[in-house]
Amino acid sequence: MPAEPCVNTPVPGADQYYPLNTPDIGEAFPPELYARNKDLPKLFQPLTLKGVTFKNRIFVSPMCQYSSDYGHATDWHLVHLGGYATRGVGAICIEASAVVPEGRISPEDAGLWTDSQIAPLQRIVNFVHAQGTKIGIQLAHAGRKASTLAPWVHSNAPRTKVAKSQVAHEDENGWPDQVYGPSEIPFASDYPKPKAMTEEDIQYVEDAFVSAVERCKKIGFDFIELHMAHGYLFHSFLSPLSNVRSDVYGGPALENRLRFPLRAAARVRSVWADKPLFVRISATDWAEGPEKGEDGVWKQWGIEQSKVFVGECEKIGVDLIDCSSGGNWAAQKITVGEGYQVPFAEALKKAHPNMIVGAVGMITLPRSAESFLSSGKADVVFLARELIRNPHWALTAAKELGVAVKPANQYERGWAELVIRH
Ligand SMILES: Cc1cc2nc3c(=O)[nH]c(=O)nc-3n(C[C@H](O)[C@H](O)[C@H](O)COP(=O)(O)O)c2cc1C
């Protein structure tokens, strides 16, 4: 029998030559090859949602880079996101990307409001797919927190230079007079004063989300996440602290505050029917006092209303809730620590056992990440800052948990210990 030719197999169908990884980078080897993979930690068990299989449960949390060219991704994004694809994460969620220009947080935020923004994103998606990694995008509208300065423009690292306010004024590429929210309540005194959205404004934003989804289809994303957290537009509609409207979109009635976010999510679901839809929420405003007063009136956004909201999201077919917190109340007081937001994810999971729930927030240690998943508190973990510090986190986690996973062919010599058969 002739010997099989030994070739450096290319990734089939890729637009450039890339060596094929078998299995994918960050995927556990079959137990027939590595007996130690017989009982895989949850972190490395695949997850399939709407026919999309994530090879492990380590997801890159969306991270604004303040580096876009009028909403267009650049090669910074290719390198930043591409670096995660070559280092074994299960999924990458691209940063908050505005569906209308005035929905950017800062002038250099990412966007998906026009067709010219498709090509640079498609290039990133093609690269990430060629490395066997799933990639999606967080669609967003910053609401009353729009037109603000990028962090390092607001204050430099040694803090020898600090801007007087958060606002990006017109001569700083901002649009402070076109900032919108549910009510005319600014996030803080040094933020722009929002205009209360009219019915027409609400429709316009909803339509913009639908148009952005159409662009997502052309780009070939594997999933979409709707940003409904951190005090941005949808969260500000959900919370009674920021939404004091007296029409069908607001006020004390929970049903009214849910209306716009839910309708937008349902419309997105109807046009993004075949692939996973994630929703990121803030499970609490972290304001002082209870979520509901003794008078029975909701005082701030919290876990009880979040449970109701997630139940409604489940009904319209949302596939995953990415559970964050805060960002809507400037005086929030948060006690942080390893996995500090996991109890919220756990509460949502308990209330809605069939919903896939993601935990995020200071998840840094592989063993604690694994314990959150194996104890059923959440189904996946999203990491941000730890992945900035250590983009190889998935591989280091595999090493620590004793799992044999595939490093990129090109990097294998740095990970010999990970793939050694013993
Ligand atoms: C640089 C940076 C940019 C961020 N940008 C976004 C964003 O675009 N959308 C979002 O929902 N959260 C954003 N976040 C929040 C993270 O996704 C994450 O929820 C938060 O940092 C807590 O996780 P961590 O402790 O792993 O960093 C950002 C965080 C960082 C550090």
From TrEMBL:
Chain segments carrying region Disordered: 161-182
GO MF term list: FMN binding; NADP binding; NADPH dehydrogenase activity
Classification via InterPro entries: Aldolase_TIM, OxRdtase_FMN_N, YqjM-like
Cofactor: FMN
Pfam families for this protein: Oxidored_FMN
Domain NADH:flavin oxidoreductase/NADH oxidase N-terminal: 42-401
Domain of life: Eukaryota
Name this protein carries in UniProt: NADH:flavin oxidoreductase/NADH oxidase N-terminal domain-containing protein
